[in-house]
Structure formats: structure tokens, C-alpha cells
Amino acid sequence: MKQNTNLFLTLVLLVSTLQFSFAQNDLITNIQGRKTISLNGTWHYIIDPYETGFYNYRYKERNEDDKEAYWNKPNEENKIDRVEHGYEAPYEIKVPGDWNSQKEVFKYYEGTVWYQREFDVPQMDATERVFLHFGAVNYEAHVYLNGKKLGMHKGGFTAFNFEIPKALLQKEGNFLVVKVDNKRYKDEIPTLNTDWWNYGGITRDVNLVITKDNFITNYGLTLNQDQDIKTALKNNKFQIDGSIKLNAVATNTTVTVEIPELKIKKNFTINGDEVRFSILAKNIHLWSPDNPKLYEVSFNFNGEKIKEKIGFRKIETSGNKILLNGTKIFLRGICIHEEVPQEQRRAYSKEDADKMFKEVKELNANMVRLAHYPHNEYMLKAADSLGIMVWSEIPVYWAIDFGNEAVLQKAKVQLEEMITRDRNKASLIIWSVGNETPVSPTRTNFMKSLITRAKELDKTRLVSAALEVAYNKEVNTIDDPLGQYTDIVSVNEYLGWYGGHPNDTQTAHWKVVYDKPLFFSETGAGAKGGYHADKETRWSEEYQEWFYEEQIKMMKKMPENYCGLSPWILRDFRSPKRNHPKYQEGWNRKGLIDDKGNKKKAFFVLQKYYKEMAENKK
Ligand code: GCU
Questions:
Q1: Which 8-state DSSP code applies to residue 62?
Q2: In angstroms, what is the span from residue 337 Cα to ligand 1's centroid?
Q3: Where is the Glycosyl hydrolases family 2 sugar binding domain (predicted)?
Q4: Helix (H) or strand (E) holding 544
């Protein structure tokens, strides 16, 4: 009898644990097109470098109902009780936003911070469900509600969501706690060593997403990339390919896709949790930098209508050229970190994105390389509406632990989260699987499998990575083995900054062993804004100006496989690796705009080059 009771109790415990320890759900995309309740605002925090809230004094993970666990609401009803944690003023922090920029105590902090707030939920009908969606948390997030764990996510720059079981929700005063840990590790993505500030925290929007019992989780809608675009234009016959993923299996149910401006309203029957379809369309105005045409598309299922503005275009390579909508394009790019230097903080808002793109347009650029990690969604929305092409990248940066299978899986998770969120952005033309990774057979296999995965997830875009160069006085050779698998050959070159002097570019020659487009994914030099001297004085604005003048002279002599550049970088940015006491002080000074928002002399050199290139329709 006793054994049966134990077995029964074990089963009850197992079910209850399973019920509330939800694994991460499929990513819900287009959050702004859904029914949401924002949880942005003022939260409370506890700084916890010893992770006392997570481990007991024997450093064992605390049990779920341990009242000293920081995910549990402190109870101070009886004055005699011992309580050693709590969430209240003045320990307040803004969400979204990194913690480093909010209080001096956080500036260099790397460790755990507990975030807490309460929220009420509106009256919901029985069929509705609630998900908790985070735009990004850097780096590891453990999420708890009313003392129960919803799940854990790793990755500092990609979105994720967990369902909140209805049984767990209270009408008022839901106690939400997020453990955020931004410590760096050898076997994470990125790894220990990066040339950017390790901003920690809940760095992007947080929303409750209210859905029907079954709903569209995410979807893809792009112009078919196999059709010859010139023929399609001539015959005014286009094919749009789509896929729709439901949260749960449906039987013989209809989903309707509408593009009113194209006079399209199509019903598709779903049997299962996904449907793939094609739609023939006429009179499509293709998306391009000159005409960033977006169409209002709506996806209707189970009483919900999800709307999104989507552009249609074709991106491809032909030999050593990049073609947009069948025409050769030249990428007048600029690299961008997700940062507002004037406030030394992560960028996260629409206003931040609008300011960034105003500077990009002033530069006469038509492309941005969003380094070195997926940026917030406002950046992609701005690029879509402004007609700026985008290179988006996962932070497989420098010396990753390439021989570790678990690290490859982490990189694939971040790759899938990046692609799932942004695959409907016409402006996004290039997925990058990494930056300046040191050549070895293990590394090349690691990166090749990321490229394979990227193409499985999305065949409609180019895949690249910043490759390595074999520098030599006579000829700089690009024969990085990874170049066999990327669609374009991209390299970061700093002739005249890391080695040599700016005028060395005049005798530089380039040899690319692949018949593919060549793209300079970085080039740049440092200058302290406002520091003026003769051009041979390092760190002066004149040196940086000279560097860009010499680089452009070289660019003008490049062979026809040269298809563009994205110099490093639009704005000065924070880096703990940059410690000259006069010229750097924790800043990487390669920005064309300094940390006060002032344009340096080099900005105007590049602006002029891009104006000429735009006018020559290069
Ligand atoms: C590298 C790297 C950047 C870095 C830059 C620099 O190419 O990709 O992340 O900041 O060079 O040295 O400034």
C-alpha cells in the first residue's frame, strides 16, 4: 500500500513540476501587430554577485518553495520573522535598458541582477492565452511568476517567450521575477573576448501577448527567389511564397492571407501546425533603396487578424556581382553598434533607431552592417521603411570554443531566433554567421554548419561572414577556406591603421581565390573628436581623414568584383579594451561621429565618396 502512495505522490509531483516548468515556446513574431500589454517601466532590482537568491549556503540550487529564494515574494507580516531579501524603492531600474548606464554601481558590473515587478491582467475569455515576451535579455535569463519557474533563455540579442499557465495567473499583483546574468564564459556566444561593452540587463521591450487558444506563432512571406526577376517584371507575373506556423495542430482549418493593394485575398487549409503556400501576383512594386515599397499584409486565423508591412524584392549574386531585383548594386554601407554614445547605453527604442538612420542617410549610405549581433526590431523596421539594406549577424566573434558541440547548438539557437524574427524584412539582404574567426579546420566546419543551417531556414537571402586575409606587402590574398561556403567574400581590412600607414594602400593589391563579390565589411581608423594636428599625428581627426582619403583612392582602383564596403564605424562606442588615457579612456574611437554626436572630418570624406557613387549609379 505504502509503495502505491509513494508512486502516486511522485506522479503528482512530476505532473505539477512539468505543468509549470515550461520549455521555451516557438518564437512569437510581429509583437507590435498583436494584442499586447507592455511591461516596460520601473522595476525593482537586487544586485546578487554571489547568486544568494539562487543557491543556498551550501551552494546548492534552492528549492522552488524556499522562502529565501529571490523568486519568492518576501513575507514580513510578523515582525519576528527573518527576511533577507526584498524588492522596493530606492532599488529601482528602468526596463528596457542596460543596467550599466543607469547607476554608477553598475558601470562595470558583470554578474546576476534580479529584476522584479508586479502586474495585473485584464479580464480574458476562457479561450485566451498569455505569453511573456522579451525583446532581449543579456545574457542568461531565468523567468519566474508567482514563485513558479516559466523557463530559462541564453543569448543576449534575440527575442524569446514563455507561456504563462492560466492556473498560475492572478487577477492582480502577479509577482514577476527575472534573474539576469551577464557574466562572460569561454563556451558561450559571444565568448570571453569582445571589443564592445558587456551591457547587461533586460535591454529591450517586455510584453504580455494575449492570444486565442490556437494562433499564428510566426510566418514567412517573400518573393519567390527562383523566378527570373526580369521575366517576372516583363510579364508582370510574380510568385510570392509563404509559410504559416500555428501554435498547435489544427484540422481542416482555414487561414486567410490578404494583400489588399495587390487585390489578393487567399484562403489556405491547414491540417497540422504549419502550411506552406504560393500566391501568384501582378503589379508588384519591388522594394529597393530608391523605392522602399511596403505592402500591408494581414494574416487571419481563428478570429485574430495580424497585420504587418512587408516589401517584396529579389537579392542574388551573379558571378562576382550582387543583384537587387536583377540589377547590379553597390553597397554604400556603414557599420553600427547598438549604442547611444552620448548616454553610454544600449539603443533600444524607435527614437534611437530613427536618430541612427538619420545619420546613415546623411552619409549617403544605402546599407548598414548591424554589428556584431542582431539589433532591436525598431532598427529593421526603420531600414525597411527608409530603403536601407541590412547585414545582420550573430555574435560568433573571434575565438569561439569551436570544438564544443554544445557551443555550436547555442550558435544555432541564436541564428534561428534571428532569422525567425526578421525573415519578413525586405531590407535584410545578408545573414552573417560570424566575424573574424581564426582559421582552422574545426572553425571552418563549425561555421560551415551555421551557413548550412541558415540556408535551411531561409533560402531567400545571401549568407556571409567576415573572413580572414593573408596580408602580404605585394598581394593581400583572400583564400580563407570559409569563402567556399559564403555567397559573398567579406573581409575587414585596416591597411594604415593596424600595420603600415594610410598611404600604403596605394601599393596594395588584392587577390580573391573565389569568383564571388568582394565586400569590405570593415575598414577604419581612430580619432579623438575635436583633436586636430597634422595628418601624420595618430588620433587626430586629420589622420582619420587621411586614412579615408587613401582608402577611397584604393577603392576607386579595385577590380570589378568589388561590390561595396561598410566602414568601421558610424559612432564611437564603449569598449573595455581601449585604454589610452588621453585618446580612448574606454572608448573605441573609430566612429565617424564622436561620443558627443559631432561629425569628425572623415565623415565628410566618406559622405562625398558615397554621393559620387550614388550619382554614378554604381
Ligand atoms: C575588428 C572587429 C571590430 C573591432 C574593430 C576594431 O575588425 O570586427 O569588432 O571593434 O576591428 O579593432 O576597432
A1: P
A2: 11
A3: 38-209
A4: helix 541-555
Ligand 1 nearest atom to the CA of residue 435, by list position: 8
Q: Is the shortest distance between the CB of 175 and ligand 1 below 6 Å?
A: no
* DSSP string of 450-511, one letter each residue: HHHHHHHH-TTSEEEEEE--B--SS-EEE--GGGGTSSSEEEE--TTTSSS-GGGGGG--EE
> CB within 8 A of 557, min separation 6: which ones?
none
Q: How far is CA 145 from the centre of its chain?
A: 26
Rounded-to-integer distance, Cα 76 and Cα 248, Å: 43
Phi, psi of 119 (to 5 degrees): -150, 155
Contact 209, 36 (CB under 8 A): yes
568 lines ligand 1 (CB under 6 A): yes
Q: Determine the CATH number of domain 2-211.
A: 2.60.120.260
The grid coordinates listed for 382 are 526603420
Q: Classify domain 216-313 at the CATH topology level.
A: Immunoglobulin-like (2.60.40)
- Helix (H), strand (E), coil (C) string for 517-543: CEEEEECCCCECCCCCCCCCCCECHHH
Where are the chain's structural domains?
Answer: 2-211, 216-313, 317-617
CA–centroid distance, residue 195 to ligand 1 (Å)? 6
Asked if 188 and 410 count as a contact pair (C-beta separation under 8 A), the reply is yes
Measured from the CB, is residue 359 less than 6 Å from ligand 1? no
Give every CB contact of residue 74 below 8 A, 6+ residues apart in sequence: 67, 83, 85, 86, 87
Cis peptide before 581 (omega within 30 of 0): no
Indicate the top mutation candidate among 468, 491, 522 to test ligand 1's pocket, ranked by most ligand atoms within 8 A of CB: 522
Length of the chain, please? 618
The CATH number that domain 317-617 falls under is 3.20.20.80
Alpha helices in 150-224 (DSSP H): none
| Contact status, residue 433 vs residue 226, Cβ threshold 8 Å | no
* pTM over 0.85, yes/no: yes
Distance 213 CA to ligand 1 centre (A): 47
Model confidence pLDDT, tens digit, residues 109-149: 999 999 999 999 988 989 999 999 999 999 999 999 999 99
Residue 181's identity, in one-letter code, is D
